[in-house]
Design a protein that fits this description.
- The chain has 93 residues and is mainly alpha-helical.
- Helix content is 46%, strand content 11%.
- Strand 1 and strand 2 form a beta hairpin.
- The structure holds zinc ion.
- Zinc ion binds next to strand 4 and helix 2.
């Protein structure tokens, strides 16, 4: 995997990879408006990944104290991740 791809997060051509954030982690990043919903479950570059990961670590106390993103939004994100992970379905336009 040496091909460069546009990172969905910063928009630069980088070596990107799908990161193993949980739906809950994505939900928090969305909740804090750190990412756009189009970034959820998408491959991102290592610098974006470390930024987001640091953010999650920095704000982990906030995550423990809540308010938590709603279960509905977490489910929507899980569905989005699943959707993004699958090849485009030509039937569901
Ligand atoms: Zn990036």
């Amino acid at each position: 995997m040496k091909a460069l791809q546009r990172c969905k997060c910063c928009g630069e051509m980088k070596r990107v990879r799908v990161r193993d954030f949980s739906p809950q982690a994505w939900a928090y990043l969305l909740h804090w408006e750190e990412i756009d919903s189009s970034v959820v479950g998408q491959p991102i570059c290592s610098s974006c990944y470390s930024d987001l990961r640091e953010l999650l670590i920095d704000r982990s106390s906030e995550m423990e104290q809540g308010p938590e993103p709603s279960i509905a939004s977490q489910q929507a994100i899980a569905a989005e991740m699943l959707h993004n992970g699958l090849p485009q379905d030509p039937i569901a336009s």
